Amino acid sequence: MRPRLQGLELRPLTSDDERFIAMLSRRAFVRYAHRPVRTVLDLIEAKDSDTFVAHLDDLPVGFAVVRLEDHLDYGPVAQPQLAHLDAIAVETMLRRRGVGRALLAHAEEHARRAGALAMFLMTASNNERARHLFAAADYQPYGGFGGAYRGRHHGVLLTKVLRTDRAAAPALRA
Ligand SMILES: CC(C)(COP(=O)(O)OP(=O)(O)OC[C@H]1O[C@@H](n2cnc3c(N)ncnc32)[C@H](O)[C@@H]1OP(=O)(O)O)[C@@H](O)C(=O)NCCC(=O)NCCS
């Protein structure tokens, strides 16, 4: 394990982060998306989407995009809210130092506080680093998506329950 970074700060996205996001998205996602920057900007601008940027010494080093979504009634739960991790990336030089884990935990906490019952995401089946990150954070596979990515890479659908307490479902139907 590489030494963890001290002094990492997680902040909401500001316009100052735009160049960084574009630069990192181009490098981090070019293998999986034909237009990685446009794809990530669309995700950031999507309805009910929030982006968090990890800073080290005031410099951006990673980001995560999380989106909340209301769903139809499910069993006894009325209109459960679910969260989707739409993107996560860390500067190449700072990988394996705990930034991805911190961003993921922050995105989960944000979703939990907003009342989301579970987080969902998709990653490429051959994206070993991402699969290790999500496995280490207790994400479980629940399906696959053939040819979901550029180059016909397959997608793996993963999920994690965020809340199981009754407060998680304030709208439990009688
Ligand atoms: C996936 C990504 C965000 C991980 O970020 P990171 O900052 O390197 O991750 P962390 O250092 O927090 O790692 C957390 C855990 O994930 C696992 N992990 C991360 N990278 C790994 C690797 N290269 N090999 C094995 N395990 C790895 C480990 O369990 C690690 O914990 P440990 O270091 O205590 O063993 C980063 O590799 C990245 O930006 N990749 C390109 C973009 C991408 O593929 N995003 C995912 C799309 S869904």
In short:
A seven-stranded mixed beta sheet has the order 1-2-3-4-5-7-6, sandwiched between helices. The protein is built from four helices and seven strands.
Q: How would you describe this protein?
A:
With 174 residues, the protein is of the alpha+beta class. It has a single domain, classed as 3-Layer(aba) Sandwich (Aminopeptidase), CATH 3.40.630. The protein has helices at residues 18-29, 36-45, 99-113, 128-136, and strands spanning 9-12, 49-56, 59-70, 81-90, 118-124, 140-145, 155-161. Strand 4, helix 3 (99-113) and strand 5 (118-124) form a beta-alpha-beta unit. The protein starts with 8 loop residues before the first strand and ends in a 13-residue tail after the last strand. The site of coenzyme A (COA) has 19 residues, from strand 4, helix 3 and helix 4.
Q: Would you spell out the secondary-structure blueprint of this structure?
A:
Elements: E1 9-12, H1 18-29, H2 36-45, E2 49-56, E3 59-70, E4 81-90, H3 99-113, E5 118-124, H4 128-136, E6 140-145, E7 155-161
Parallel strand pairs: 4-5
Antiparallel strand pairs: 1-2, 2-3, 3-4, 5-7, 6-7
Helix pairs in contact: 1-2
The structure holds coenzyme A.
Coenzyme A binds next to strand 4, helix 3 and helix 4.
